[in-house]
Design goal:
homodimer, 307 residues, alpha/beta, Rossmann fold, 7-stranded parallel beta sheet, 3-stranded antiparallel beta sheet, 13 helices
Chain lengths: 307, 307
């Protein structure tokens, strides 16, 4: 089992590559749910959906999230009613939220609902929420504390992030299926996701850090920062405002005690010796995933490294 | 104020006629919410929506419910996920449910949400739910007890109705706005709706029967049965299985102590003397509303009768 800690778009693209080079059934993703939100009574899990839509080949390839070819009739009708929903709700995407919401309300766990949804979408990898309990990432900014999607979507992640809170994380636990996947892992991979709001949210749930730190299998992290810049999202600025070096090395330091190997982009080859000095094996390769070939190539390098 | 007790399609069509012959601001509708349901976490109020969509000119004219020209992308996507929702959810219609659900969850009453929705839709009449508290009509059939929409939509009202229960009605109360409307009424009208599951549900809420019985204004009911048949829905069969005469006279008997005047279709003119014998003034006119002209004509007869 290749167990991957995953955020949204970057992780989903890596997972698509991974399932192209190893059997999809041999892949498990433990996915951040700190970005989850309730909107109009609907339970929305953006990262889980991004992973499911990507692995089922349904994702909008340009954006990397949402469903390809989706319409927005509901959203337009909400706007006609004077609503201004900050979160994009595609019509077919809404069906996923309705599917999830109904089952959560009837008492199923998020793990169960996600497995059911994965099955209905034809996803053969195991897609797991980081916790069944709600965890909500809160972002402390100079403008005050914001709910994650308020920071990320409504305000376009323009605010400086001074600190993060993962409300509910202390009381949350990894689902048994996630611990089982980690126990059965032949490798643990940290996807190229935001180290704070994606991977950090997962690691804030008691149990993960210990399970990974004590795992006797190869553990690899892939830098989400290339040439000092996040390929997507605000990870580079977060590194800076949270007091870290805004580079792949800054990320490597965050994962220091957690992984054995750190994947750097070829553009960051000069950081390899500094990564090695942290006690992690540096692995330099192309990490920018423009299309399926590059995703698979990156995944192949990672798979070869752990074998 | 012309205060009308209303169910769904038939009542909405009558109200459309009424607002064509008197100023819309002079019309208040107290609408059945016993048919309300929760589906996929959404709060759905079919009769309120039918009235709002009709009075705002947005209703699908053929069906008499739902929005004209609505699409069903969400529903199709739910079906693609293996769901079989028995309730038709149009995309633009879903926006109404999301609008309502979000506000109910944030603590607004159904009366407040409905008033807001009416305002956003440009409806100038007062549209009121019969209660802010949830009331759920349950239908006892030879197959067992069914939730109303399970009986009505999922099973196509094919089961014999042996009895009805209005769960929550005892604890519910007319919203203050409904009592105020009744107190300010210059006439009270019972729309041509199902006397059991529409009007009966309203009257099951403690307070309405008394308010109407003691009102010192003209009170008129319009028969939903013409020539022994319901124009729409199962009212005729319900009359029979619930032990009443399946005719306009059977309905008149149900409203005996409640109204002063009973409107019969011209096809039922021969029942006029039997209605008069019940102590109600019979009013014979065309009650079949095929289009706007017929709706307005029926409303005009009713308005003239109460003046």
């Amino acid at each position: 089992m290749f167990v991957t800690l995953a955020g949204g778009v970057g992780a989903a693209r890596f997972l698509a590559g991974l399932t192209a080079v190893v059997p999809p059934e041999a892949v498990a993703a433990i996915v951040n749910t700190g970005d989850d939100l309730e909107l109009y009574g609907l339970a929305i899990s953006p990262d889980l959906d991004t992973v499911l839509y990507t692995l089922s080949g349904r994702v909008d390839p340009e954006r990397g999230w949402g469903l390809a070819g989706d319409t927005t009739h509901v959203l337009e009708a909400l706007a006609a009613l004077g609503e201004q929903p900050f979160f994009r709700l595609g019509d077919r995407d809404l069906a996923t939220h309705l599917f999830r919401t109904a089952r959560l309300r009837s008492g199923q766990t998020l793990t169960e609902v996600t497995a059911l949804l994965a099955g209905r979408l034809g996803v053969r990898s195991q897609v797991l929420p980081m916790a069944n309990e709600p965890v909500r990432t809160r972002v402390i900014t100079p403008e005050g504390e914001l709910a994650f999607q308020e920071y990320f979507v409504a305000r376009g992640h323009r605010d400086d992030v001074l600190a993060l809170r993962f409300v509910g994380a202390e009381a949350a636990r990894p689902p048994p299926e996630a611990l089982a996947a980690l126990a059965a892992a032949r490798a643990i991979i940290i996807a190229p996701s935001n180290p704070f709001v994606s991977i950090g949210a997962i690691l804030a749930v008691p149990g993960y850090r210990e399970a990974i730190a004590t795992a006797r299998v190869p553990r690899v992290a892939i830098s989400p920062i290339v040439g000092g810049q996040a390929l997507k999202g605000p990870a580079d600025r977060m590194l800076r405002t949270l007091g870290h070096e805004p580079s792949a090395l800054g990320v490597a330091r965050l994962y220091r005690s957690l992984v054995d190997c750190f994947v750097l982009d070829t553009l960051d080859a000069e950081l390899a010796s500094a990564v090695a000095a942290l006690g992690m094996q540096p692995l330099v390769t192309n990490t920018i995933m423009r299309g399926p070939a590059e995703r698979a190539a990156l995944a192949r390098v990672v798979v070869e490294a752990v074998q």
